[in-house]
Design a protein that fits this description.
3 helices, about 80% helix
């Protein structure tokens, strides 16, 4: 059996340390996101630059985990929707996931559509109000200008 060299052990320990830092970064992202949500709901003020910090930490996670993945020869596989059951159950589960996904995307689309239409109605009503107020002001100006001449 081949014993790992001192350089390999050193590199593995460094990569494990970087992996631990990336785990901490994941915890920071989760905590920051939860805190930002609470601050937005409770105080009405989100934490400034949360998105930029999150982007920075995600990049840090990707590059800090890469050495460990290469040294161990591992692969990242996320089986969120994989099911190793019987074919009937797999079909039912796939159909349920598809139906729930369709329902979720439909709800998001309907919410976005309602928001867009509400904003459009508000813009239309404010534009109508501003044109009415302009015509009223011009009538008042004209009547006062002509009244002062006579």
């Amino acid at each position: 059996m081949i014993q790992p060299s001192g350089l390999y052990t050193f590199c593995r320990r460094i990569s494990e340390g970087m992996l631990m830092l990336s785990i901490l970064a994941i915890l920071v992202i989760a905590t920051l996101g939860a805190t930002n949500t609470v601050m937005t709901v409770v105080a009405g003020k989100p934490i400034p630059a949360v998105i930029q910090i999150t982007k920075l930490l995600v990049a840090l996670i990707i590059f800090m985990t890469q050495p460990f993945i290469v040294l161990t020869g591992a692969h990242i596989a996320i089986d969120l929707f994989a099911f190793k059951g019987r074919s009937v159950l797999r079909t039912i589960r796939s159909f349920a996931i598809l139906a729930l996904s369709l329902l979720s995307y439909s709800a998001i689309s309907v919410g976005a559509w309602r928001s867009m239409m509400k904003k459009r109605q508000l813009q239309g009503s404010s534009a109508a109000e501003s044109s009415e107020s302009r015509s009223t002001r011009s009538r008042q100006f004209c009547s006062s200008a002509f009244a002062s001449r006579s």
